[in-house]
Specification:
This protein is of the alpha/beta class. Helices cover 39% and strands 19% of the residues. It is globular and about 50 Å long.
């Protein structure tokens, strides 16, 4: 008997985006690294807002008038995993809502969602002034230490309970989504914690490899 999944939630960076993260893509464009900031975040010395603030201000140091459209242009060629639209279509055919829950940049999340038929997305962003120029602040919609809260938003929006939810992620920050899901899939995992908390572990270069595990007969 095929299980009835009402909601399927995908992490973006490292899952839909075939790259470490959309933030890192911008860093690499400017030839900078944020290892020190990342370590400070992982160790709990800075929070999500300060993490974003420090990243954004590094960009502004290199391009003082950087605006949202610049980021959209930089992010345009970010590599995307294969088989997204077909996967979303198959999940829709099975009756599920399909969403993105990401700490990545919303420019990329919006584009992937629009081009592949996702029902919704939540992702972080950059604050801009009326001209579109970055202010140096981030817009926090998905707390990396509690992605489960963003998942609950979609569960409540669509009236789907935890046992009818599937979550797909690749790192330890996705474990809080796994805890609120009936099926947890680690897709191209990058750490042991996400593997240990997943029901299924998949390493693949095409998202359609997920489907046999979700749409079992």
């Amino acid at each position: 008997m095929k299980p009835q999944w009402g909601l399927v939630a995908f992490d973006m960076d490292g899952v839909l985006v075939d790259y470490t993260s959309s933030w890192t893509w911008v860093h690499d464009h400017f030839k900078i690294d944020n290892e020190e900031t990342l370590l400070a975040y992982i160790q709990g010395r800075i929070d999500d807002r300060e993490f974003m603030r420090q990243d954004i201000r590094r960009w502004m140091e290199l391009k003082a008038d950087i605006c949202r459209s610049d980021l959209e242009t930089i992010l345009e060629p970010v590599p995307i995993i294969g088989g997204i639209s077909e996967t979303v279509e198959a999940l829709h055919d099975a009756g599920a809502k399909v969403v993105i829950v990401s700490g990545g940049l919303d420019m990329t999340a919006e584009r992937i969602a629009r081009e592949n038929g996702f029902d919704g997305y939540l992702a972080n962003s950059v604050e801009c002034d009326p001209s579109g120029a970055l202010t140096g602040e981030g817009v926090l919609r998905v707390d990396l230490t509690n992605k489960g809260a963003a998942l609950r938003h979609f569960q409540e929006l669509y009236g789907v309970d935890q046992m009818s939810t599937v979550s797909i992620g690749n790192s330890f920050v996705d474990v809080s989504m796994f805890a609120l899901s009936g099926l947890a899939i680690a897709f191209n995992p990058i750490d042991e914690q996400v593997k240990k908390n997943a029901d299924v572990v998949i390493n693949a270069k095409d998202l359609r490899e997920l489907l046999p595990y979700i749409l079992r007969d």
